[in-house]
Amino acid sequence: MVSKTIMCPNCKNQITIEGSPGERKIITCPKCNTRGGFSFPGEGAISKVVSGSSAIEIHGLTKTYNGLKAVDNLSFNVRKGEIFGFLGPNGAGKTTAIKALLGLIHADTGVMKIDGHNMRDESIEAKKKLGYLPERANFYKNLTPVQTLDFFCELKGENKSVILPLLKEVGLEDAINKKVGNFSKGMVQLLGVAQTMIGKPSIYILDEPMGGLDARWVKSIREKIKMLNKQGATVILSSHILSEVQNLCDRVAIINKGKLIAEDTVSNLNKYLNIKPRLEITVKGLDGKVPSIINELKGVEAANAKGNTLLITCESPIRVKVISALEDAGFVIENIITIEPSLEDAFVKLVEGDT
Ligand SMILES: Nc1ncnc2c1ncn2[C@@H]1O[C@H](COP(=O)(O)OP(=O)(O)O)[C@@H](O)[C@H]1O
Ligand SMILES: [Mg+2]
User: Fold this and answer.
1) Each residue of 232-269: pLDDT tens digit?
2) All residues with CB under 5 Å from ion ligand 2
3) Ligand 1 interacting residues, C-beta cut-off 6 A
4) Which domains does the chain carry?
5) Is the entire prediction scored with pTM above 0.70?
6) With 0-12 CB in 10 A as exposed, 13-18 as middle and 19+ as buried, what is 93?
7) Quick one: which atom of ligand 1 is closest to the CA of 97?
C-alpha cells in the first residue's frame, strides 16, 4: 500500500489517499465534491525515483496562455535507456510541455531536468546531450539534404564528415542531390531525424515524429527510433495516435487538458483499467442476434452481434466455454479471432474517466 497526499485542483483541499502501485483511483473531494482521477505510479516508476537514473524529470510544470492552463502541474520522469511515449489528444498540451522543458517557451512554474542538469541554470550542458525534432520540422526548400545538414553541423560545431553516413543511416542516400522542397513529408521527417542525430545525442525528444505520415513512412520512423534506442539512446516521442506507439514504447505518460492522467507501462495500463481481450467469432447464419445460450453463460461480460459476427468480452478461461456452448447448440463456427486490448482502449477509458 502506498499513501499519497494530493491537492484538490478546485478548492486546494489536501486529500490523503491510499492505493497500490499502478492503481488508478477516482476521488471525490470531501469539501467541494470535485471529481478527478489519480494514478499511483507502477512498481517500476517507484524504484526509478529511488535510483535517480532519470534522463528527463519534470516536476510541477504549469504553462498558462491567456488564462488557459495549457499544461497544468505536470510531473513525470523518463528513465535512461527507455522509449517513452508522451500521449494525449490534439490540444492536450504535449508540444507546450516539450517546449517548456527545452526552455523554448517560459513556464509559469516547474523544475525541469535533463540528464540531471537543471534547465534553469545548466541548459547549455543539458542541450549538448539532446536531439530535438520539432512538431513540424521545416527546412529551407532550396537546399539539398547535404546542404541542410551542413548548416546544422555548423550550428552544432560538428565535423561534416558525418553528413553522408547519416543520410544513409536514415535511408535518404538516393535523395542527396534533390532539393528539400521536392521531398515528400516522410522524407522531410527522416531528414529531421538525421538532423537530430548530429552530435550523437544520448536523449532524443521527438514531437509527433509520425504525424500525418502514411504507413510506409511510419514504419521507417519507428525503425529509426528502435535503432537509436538499441544504440543506447533514450527516446521520448509524443503522439496523439496511440496505435503508432503501442508496440514501440516501454512506458507512456498520458495527458489530457494539460494534466497527467496516467504514467505506466502499456501492459500495466491495460491491467489496472481492467480492459479484457475480446473474442470475435464468425457464426454461420447468426443474422445479428446474440444466441440466448451466450447471454445466459456465466463469465460473459458483454456480447454483441453484427451480421454473422459475434463480439464477446470475457476472461480467457471462459473463451473455451463460449465456443463449446455455441457448438453444442448446433451453431457452425467459421472463424475465431482474439482481439487483444489496445492502448487505444486504455486511452479512451482514461480520457473519459478524466472528464
Ligand atoms: N502560443 C499559444 N498561444 C495560445 N494558446 C496556445 C499556444 N500554443 C498552444 N496553445 C494552446 O494550448 C493548448 C495545448 O496545445 P499544444 O501544446 O499544442 O497541444 P498538443 O501538442 O498536445 O496538441 C491548446 O489549447 C492550444 O490551443
Ligand atoms: Mg503538438
Assistant:
1) 999 999 998 877 787 899 999 989 999 998 898 877 77
2) 94-95, 135
3) 65, 70, 88, 90-96
4) 1-40 (no CATH), 52-272 (3.40.50.300), 278-339 (3.30.70.100)
5) yes
6) buried
7) 17
